[in-house]
Specification:
The protein is built from 14 helices and 8 strands. By secondary structure, the protein is α/β, with parallel strands linked by helices. It has an 8-stranded parallel barrel with strand order 1-2-3-4-5-6-7-8, surrounded by 8 helices.
Amino acid sequence: MTSPKKGRVFIQEVAPRDGFQNEAGFIPTERKIALIDALGATGVAKIEVTSFTSSKAIPALADAESVMAGIRRHPGVAYAALVPNVRGCERALACGVDEINLVMSVSAGHSLANLRRLPADSLAEFERIVGMAAGEVGIAVSLSTAFGCPFDGPVAEREVVDVVERLVGLGIVSVTLCDTTGMANPAQVRSLCGRVRARWPGLQLTAHFHDTRGMGLANAVAALEAGMDRFDASLSGLGGCPYAPGASGNVCTEDLAHMLEAMGYRSGVDLGALLDASRVLAGMLDHPVSSHLLEAGPWHRRYPLPAFARTGSMAGLRRHAQ
């Protein structure tokens, strides 16, 4: 398997959708717009701006049209929105999104809990949506529970491959493999991502990890080793799934960007601008965020030596020890 090292790795920001959908309080529309505008200037490849879903199901994103109308679009950044059904697709197209992100679950249990339908029903809906949107906007599909389901347990690789095959048959050229509740481990990620990558080398593949059990960055490294070069991530580690028990935040964007930079990968992301946006986001919330980098700073950060160490004298060292 080929690693994309020394090549471009694309970071795709999902906090405005995946993050805000899980917040108990409503984030004011103007603050969402300001954050998205700041994110657009950081160098991320894509921003998932919102979701055109029912305001009853996800009240935190009831302002989807207003947010899309208010953002300033930066050149080179794709502005996407999650679309759950035909009606959502109609709304998204009317707002001029660059890409619609369809979502379905590989497992039946999560599909029923999250979407109130079976995976086969989602595929049938996708066929209608592709007929509506093909040629007008980009179409991507996110496969929830690709690495395991909180209701059904382990998900076999063969099940994921079968679904991807159906999607490719519909003309889908962009697929995201999602670890919805942080059940994946690096060996599993390397195996599944490598298998899908080898089977469809021309398919645009994205990895979407949650850090529920502290394996998010390790899974990202495993995906890199399997040839993946696109990653969803969420500013400040925000996120979760309201219909998946135990799901916590996504892999943190600034932590991922920092790790990639330290390993020698190019993401095109301005880490300083990303940290500035993370500080703004942290100030918008009424709970702590999960950003290691925001707390500790980058690995190359340096501190001034203590005064006794600057003197270099043994007498100074002895006085300090006393």
